[in-house]
């Protein structure tokens, strides 16, 4: 290259840096605008489009008008996308922010892969203790089990309620495990808070914003399941309802979404794992039991979930699944759960 060509090349590089800095500054201003009184009042995309149009009119007639228009189109699109992603969100993962790790009763979730397992429903002390003991011997420390059950039919078993909570607490205390249980109704908050370590919000309640706000006022981790018809953005915004009230101990759970497919109970969306991890700092759990409703494909899906970055897998187990009061098809007996743990977690 001649000296003057080198000089011109250098000028171009400088200009590129200036453009990059200007774009960054432009995004920062948009963030600040949105931060002022949340979106609607101060950030108006149509106003921004008009402003960009005005700039473009100045280039009209110039040789490069079309190229400038294309570039500004991209700038505008990037700005609009940024606004949808919600830069002001508390649950948004900042660049370089490490993933959240929570310690519950001395057990950590968010770093080494965990299994959250237990019966679908707490049915008796004996049943819960048998599953807990077996899981504990397999190295599992997070015991799940429903005391308040969201059943499709109002005539199906609805859970042992407070009695179930007490059983859950007793068994987890005896074994040194973490109690994970679902809350359906804000009126049960205090009762559940007395006995549980992690609140689970089920798929049917992901859109129950009053419940989410209430959990935002507690100081225990919330395992928030994806609604069965919810987009990932809706799941993230549901998490924001919790975080906005001050509780940022959130665990997101992919448990399958409803689709046309009939061979599985739901359709497991594994893309959710890396997408949620990229956008939020929260650990992601994959519930392969409710996602599939069948035991024969849980091992490969659990492996895939962990490979995709899941902090934990969730499954269900019962001493006698055929007699279980809920979800018979997907609960593993005490032999099956041993084989499952071996296949998924053995080094
Ligand atoms: C559960 O985990 O017990 C449960 C009811 O799951 P989901 O809300 O995902 O259906
Ligand atoms: Mn279940």
Provide a descriptive summary of the structure in words:
- The chain folds into two domains: about 5-85, Chorismate Mutase Domain, subunit A (Up-down Bundle), CATH 1.20.59; about 100-345, Aldolase class I (TIM Barrel, Alpha-Beta Barrel), CATH 3.20.20.70.
- The strands form two sheets. An eight-stranded parallel barrel has the order 3-4-5-6-7-8-9-10, surrounded by seven helices. It has a two-stranded antiparallel sheet with strand order 1-2.
- The protein is elongated.
- Helix content is about 45%, strand content about 15%.
- With about 350 residues, the protein is an alpha/beta fold.
- It has helices at about 5-35, 45-60, 65-85, 125-135, 160-175, 190-195, 210-215, 230-245, 270-280, 290, 300-305, 335-345; strands at about 100-105, 105-110, 115-120, 140-145, 180, 200, 220-225, 250-255, 285, 310-315, 330.
- The model has no long low-confidence stretch (mean pLDDT about 95).
- The protein starts with a helix and ends with a helix.
- Phosphoenolpyruvate binds near residues 146, 182 and 287.
